């Protein structure tokens, strides 16, 4: 086996193992489960581990070089209209190819799937074009974010409450495993041709702005569609007795996800082929490497999605229903926080982002540090999601103050942290959120007899919100430490991100 692949699978093992252990402990002490269901879950966990390993290596070999190449080429375009059109088309193509969006579209009542998908795709396309223009013309990211989120908050006041959670969720699902590696690499490519000191920090922010677009677009759509009830269909845990039964269930699901991922990858492969014919950028050896990367990406996503949807999703809804039956149902909040802390590490796109951050900052912001901040942020968000389901508090009371806090913090932290923070919000809410945390939330809501549209939906939005606050707080600590060092004369620091290492060493 490829040594690099072994390394990636080892990383995936350390990411998936904790959440697997938590579920097994819950099955022993709080929610007894049949042995067959446990075997289903463990099989799904193995597929997740192997799938994540293949996907991460595939993204590194294919998505990253293509994204960087496209970014460099766009930066060389002289006409603004060409830049805008290219950014828009790229945004639409990669959004339509995102598997998570297909899942969300199928769960929203009163809105045709095609309408919701195209609305989200247009939103991403418009704001990806805006993000490219921002890097090209060195426009302030905090300023754009303040304007965008102010518009978002204003429009949300006029949208039916049943549509709010879905709208904010849509911003999270669009930045999944298919789009994040490509968009992140595109940002690096766009910034690489610049030689100014802000180039590194400006390479981040594409995912952040691309996440705003679909929220805004779906909120506007909500003014025309009036969903009153959820159409979410929970998947029951399959009845399995023997290992043959387990194999049969996964064998039935595997072809479906193989087709789904193939359809998702084809537009990106088409983009690569067209790009290569127009620019002749890649040599034969690089093309072969990218082709192998696409194959790894395909295998990885098929295994990951099958494991997550067949093995994890049914168990998530089952746990949600059963945990509400315990005498002290408020235990859902700490349990949710514990699950959230570890489950974010199993998101395939998270590791892509974290490695990208470490590379761009020359190791100043480490993978370990990013994982810790993301875990804390998502733990808080899942705890808040469980609180919402139990109490029925409107998502507006969390999302609007949360984004306001994030925007206020952006005025006080170094620019590089702003881009990373807002990017991380979109990246955190990936397949594991939609296939485990959302079913968990919906299972709890159904058991309590709550409104799915207003109470259960929104967990994706909260998962996308809290990491951007957590990482900016990390940036604020960094800034205070560097200012203290400067004032005491122990170090001469001037916008040097290498000093962030001290945060880790001082722990």
Sequence-ordered SSE layout with sheet pairings:
Elements: H1 3-29, H2 35-76, H3 80-96, H4 99-105, H5 113-136, H6 141-156, H7 161-173, H8 180-192, H9 199-202, H10 206-222, H11 243-279, H12 284-323, H13 332-343, H14 348-360, H15 367-391, H16 396-409, H17 415-428, H18 431-448, H19 452-456, H20 459-488, H21 501-505
Helix pairs in contact: 1-2, 1-13, 2-8, 2-11, 2-12, 2-14, 3-5, 3-11, 5-10, 6-10, 6-16, 7-10, 7-20, 8-14, 10-17, 11-12, 12-18, 13-15, 14-15, 14-17, 15-18, 15-20, 16-20, 17-20
Describe the structure.
This protein has one domain. It has helices at 3-29, 35-76, 80-96, 99-105, 113-136, 141-156, 161-173, 180-192, 199-202, 206-222, 243-279, 284-323, 332-343, 348-360, 367-391, 396-409, 415-428, 431-448, 452-456, 459-488, 501-505. It contains 21 helices and no strands. Residues 490-507 have low confidence and may be disordered. The relative contact order is 0.14. It is mainly α and 507 residues long. Helix 11 (243-279) packs antiparallel against helix 12 (284-323) and helix 15 packs parallel to helix 18. The protein is 78% helix and 0% strand.
């Amino acid at each position: 086996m490829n040594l690099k692949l072994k390394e990636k699978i080892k990383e995936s093992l350390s990411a998936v193992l904790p959440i697997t252990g938590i579920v097994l402990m819950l099955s022993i002490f709080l929610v007894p489960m049949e042995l067959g269901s446990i075997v289903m879950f463990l099989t799904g966990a193995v597929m997740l581990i192997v799938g994540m390993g293949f996907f991460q290596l595939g993204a590194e070999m294919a998505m990253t070089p293509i994204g960087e190449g496209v970014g460099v080429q766009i930066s060389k375009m002289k006409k603004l209209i060409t830049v805008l059109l290219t950014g828009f088309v790229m945004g639409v193509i990669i959004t339509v190819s995102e598997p998570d969006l297909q899942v969300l579209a199928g769960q929203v009542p009163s809105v045709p799937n095609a309408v919701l998908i195209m609305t989200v795709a247009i939103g991403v396309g418009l704001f990806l074009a805006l993000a490219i223009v921002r890097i090209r013309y060195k426009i302030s990211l905090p300023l754009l974010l303040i304007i965008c989120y102010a518009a978002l908050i204003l429009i949300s006041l006029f949208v039916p409450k049943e549509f709010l959670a879905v709208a904010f969720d849509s911003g999270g699902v669009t930045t999944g495993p298919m789009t994040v590696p490509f968009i992140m690499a595109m940002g690096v490519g766009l910034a690489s041709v610049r030689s100014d000191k802000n180039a590194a920090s400006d390479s981040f922010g594409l995912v952040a702005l691309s996440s705003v677009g679909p929220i805004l677009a779906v909120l506007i759509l909500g003014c025309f569609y009036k969903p009153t009830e959820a159409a979410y269909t929970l998947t029951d845990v399959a009845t399995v007795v023997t290992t043959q039964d387990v194999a049969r269930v996964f064998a039935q699901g595997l072809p479906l996800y193989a087709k789904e991922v193939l359809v998702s990858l084809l537009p990106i492969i088409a983009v690569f082929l067209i790009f290569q014919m127009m620019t002749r950028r890649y040599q034969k050896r690089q093309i072969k490497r990218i082709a192998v990367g696409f194959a790894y990406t395909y295998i990885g996503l098929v295994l990951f999605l099958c494991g997550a949807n067949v093995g994890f999703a049914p168990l998530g809804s089952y746990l949600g229903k059963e945990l509400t039956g315990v005498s002290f149902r408020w235990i859902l909040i700490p349990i949710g926080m514990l699950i959230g802390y570890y489950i974010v590490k199993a998101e395939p796109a998270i590791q892509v982002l974290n490695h990208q951050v470490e590379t761009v900052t020359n190791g100043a912001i480490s993978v370990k540090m990013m994982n810790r901040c993301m875990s804390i942020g998502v733990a808080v968000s899942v705890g808040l999601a469980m609180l919402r389901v139990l109490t029925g508090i409107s998502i507006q009371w969390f999302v609007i103050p949360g984004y306001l806090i994030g925007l206020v913090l952006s005025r006080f932290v170094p620019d590089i942290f702003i881009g990373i923070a807002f990017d991380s919000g979109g990246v955190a809410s990936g397949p594991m959120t939609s296939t485990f945390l959302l079913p968990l939330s919906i299972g709890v809501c159904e058991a309590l007899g709550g409104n799915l549209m207003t109470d259960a939906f929104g967990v994706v939005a909260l998962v996308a919100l809290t990491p951007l606050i957590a990482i900016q707080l990390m940036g604020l600590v960094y800034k205070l430490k560097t200012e203290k060092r400067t004032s005491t004369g122990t170090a001469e620091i001037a916008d040097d991100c290498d000093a962030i290492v001290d945060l880790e060493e001082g722990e």
